[in-house]
């Protein structure tokens, strides 16, 4: 994994770095995220097996699962997994390296350089007990959150996450069009209307033997949702 050699002095610099990263890491995965078409949702294998079969999108994710010591969760437990792609992992690692370099610390060269506790904490944000499909979640309208707020759920590490389905419009008729699942990180769980980061799902209702996978779209930029929290936890667990 390449190390970024950029220094920032304030959040304005970081905003610029974000834009550079997002442009630089836009890879040729667009077709995957645009439309999955009609396919058989059932998969004759575990969640981990499914991810391993698609290394172009999930090779780093599979490595993180193994580093976090969560193989059994993804092969034996019945879970719903909102799968982030390697695109978001790369972005978060690059932000980590920007911060480490600016602080005069060694940047990471491989995913193994991150403490397993950090990987486990942030991986667990995307994981929920039980097998839930799109139809099992309530409606959310980000313009009318008081009316259609989705619902808060506890992830595997007890982080409060909001999950809801956006009902699209069709022929100028509200809520009768496509439906898209969203996983939302709430900075302040009691104030979803004020501070949240949403991650739309590109492919929903993939059904391996031990649960359900909803693959997040390329619009989910950062693994763990908050790269600055990730940086802070990295330093805490490294004792820096």
Automatic annotation (TrEMBL):
Q: Where is the FAS1 domain?
A: 58-217
Q: Give the signal peptide as a residue range, or say none if absent.
A: none
The record's listing under PROSITE patterns reads: PROKAR_LIPOPROTEIN
Q: What is this protein called?
A: Fasciclin domain-containing protein
This chain's source organism reads Chitinophaga defluvii
